[in-house]
Amino acid sequence: MMMANKKLKLNNKGATLVEVIVVVAIMIVVIGGMTIGFSLITNTYTRQTKDTLEDYIGSARTKAKTVTADEWNVEIAKESNGDYKFTLNKVVKEMKADGSITSTPEVVDEKLVSGDVIISFVNDTGYKVDIDDTSSNLKIVFEASKGSVSNIMVNDVSIATDGDMGSMGTFTVTKGSFSKKLELYFITGKCEEVFD
What we know:
single chain, 196 residues, alpha+beta, six-stranded antiparallel β-sheet
């Protein structure tokens, strides 16, 4: 019995170098996979938000050119839970007997996008706004029958200074180190992705 215990103690040498290398290699693969997975998720959120913004702007432009209304607009607002709400509105204006004009917006389409991203906008005259809290929203107004951008409004106030809104604006959707950019040309109302 004593001999068996002595033999057992002699064979207990610990981990070999090969076993340590295998364990370290497995850890590297797992950590690398987690990092890549996190990056893919982050990039997916920025792309999803950029694609939704591009779709809504394109829809508003097309509808402004083809569907009768006094105004078509896209509104971007941040919800209290961190999601962004994109709203496509059709606006009909009516003149009252007293000469005042009332605007009646009709929500045509609405979508919530999550992912804790930040959307910012800057035009070529230098006006910049970050839509990063519930106190700021941005509205892109399209001119009826033409499809051009007639106004950009932040919290229902036009960004135009002395009647000049600029000729284009850039939207940037950011999450962490990932960002996607869209350029919006006011004269044509076209929107396209910009690659850095």
